[in-house]
Design goal:
This protein is α+β, with helices and mostly antiparallel strands. The protein contains one helix and nine strands. The protein has a three-stranded antiparallel beta sheet, with no helix packed on it. It has a two-stranded antiparallel sheet with strand order 2-3. It has a two-stranded antiparallel sheet with strand order 4-9. The chain is rod-shaped.
Length: about 220
């Protein structure tokens, strides 16, 4: 006869709490100058990857469960004088063999992938529209001011280049600055710049070579 010792069951567990926190930032603010700032809707997208692993070391998938000797064949006699058991094990503590038993030990792994998103939008749409109108007006004003500055620059360039060309002052065609006044045209100029002419001396020294005698029309 053989018997297996009563198994002892041990249970253990663990709980892992994982949370995804979405931090909602302030509204996106656009600045247009002149103290104009407009806030628009904001979309926050947060991808996340979480994982967990639990394992027991050393890993033992099986263990040897001892099977004890529980024979009781001696210690008393029946009415015929034959030996019988007396309720006391004949070989207490002796192990007959070991039985291979699964431990049920497992390694646990967990992987979570996801995306969390929040959408934020101001409630007062009228103020948003007014802010957009103010921003558009301020942008138009800045564009007009830039156009005025450009016009002033072109007029000044035209005037200075024209005055210099009238005086005969220009950049050399190979100069990198020649293109500054290349498109300026000076027209209807009635002034003659100061200049000199040379009269060649006569070659002959004779009076008749100079031509006839000049008369004044009076005798």
């Amino acid at each position: 006869m053989s018997a297996t010792a009563a198994p002892v069951a041990n249970s253990s567990g663990s709980v892992t709490n994982q949370a995804i926190q979405v931090l909602q930032g302030p509204y996106i603010t656009n600045t247009y100058g002149g103290g104009i700032q407009c806030q628009g809707p904001t979309l926050n997208v947060t991808p996340y990857i979480t994982g967990a692993a639990s394992a027991q070391k050393p890993y033992e998938p099986y263990y040897n469960d001892p099977v004890y000797d529980v024979t009781d064949n001696f210690g008393a006699f029946d009415e015929n004088g034959n030996p019988v058991g007396d309720g006391i094990l004949d070989n207490p503590g002796d192990v007959i063999f070991y039985k291979r038993t699964r431990t049920g030990q497992k390694d646990n792994y967990n992987l979570s992938v996801g995306v969390s998103a929040t959408w934020s939008r101001p409630l007062d749409s009228k103020l948003q529209e007014q802010c957009k109108e103010a921003a558009a007006a301020n942008i138009a004003l800045m564009q007009q001011q830039a156009a005025n500055k450009r016009l002033d620059f072109e007029i000044a360039r035209l005037k200075n280049c024209g005055e210099l060309k009238k005086q005969g002052i220009t950049f050399h065609p190979k100069s990198p600055y020649y293109s500054i006044c290349a498109d300026v045209v000076v027209r209807n100029v009635d002034t003659i710049p100061p200049h000199r002419h040379t009269i060649p001396a006569p070659v002959s020294r004779k009076a008749e070579d100079l031509g006839p005698v000049l008369t004044t029309g009076k005798e």
